[in-house]
Amino acid sequence: MPKSKTTPTPVKEALVVARTYYRENVVPELADALPNAIALNDKQLERYKLGRRQGFDRLWVMPPVAAQVAHWEQSIMHLGTLMIMNVEPDEQYLDDPSLGEEQLLRRAPLRNRPEKSSYLLMYRSGPIEASTRFRNPPDLIADFDQHGWNGLTPFEYALVQRLQCEEVGDHRWDSLYKVNGKPANVHFLLDLTIGEGKQMRVAIGYYRGKLEMGFVNAMPARPSPDYGATPTIVVPLGK
Q1: Of the four, 45, 137, 191, 211, which is 20 to 30 A from 157 by CA?
Q2: Residue span of the structural domain in which 191 resides
């Protein structure tokens, strides 16, 4: 007897929103890489429900990693340079993204991401959670693994930072600097490894001095209140 499949309404709506967004704001090839429809099997549905129970209040449909890599340059440029409507000039992007070793960011191995199938990305809106600050990446990875969570990849970060700015009207979600006395929100990208060992991690934030999205090459010498990570739940949509 075949396993039952279902499509929760939020998933169906997320697919429509993502397809439109990629086509209008990123590159149309990413929209073309999404499935025509999504039906979750029992395992996928349980993981989706886990995210809902744990307060992951944002849902996005991601194209396969292969498509992200193939259209990396144009996608990152659009996500990190195009004007955002109804956002003040000092919250826009003035310079191109500061990508550092771009090929490493584009092609470095990712944790728990499907190469050839789309996937659901669930995350929590709002600033970096206090429980992830004053922590180093290896400890965060171990903690996230224990909960069955992931972090963010460079492509996902570029997308989410723009979505968050569009939603709240500024870069409070990803500011590299303190704002009104509140800690900065510099994100460790826990699901990207550059170099050998789990400590070779990348962080990223919005650099107000140049009005650009920038990757941070130097990790803090010690755990910092300005650095943390966004937990995510990944639901691969392959068979």
Answers
A1: 45
A2: 9-236
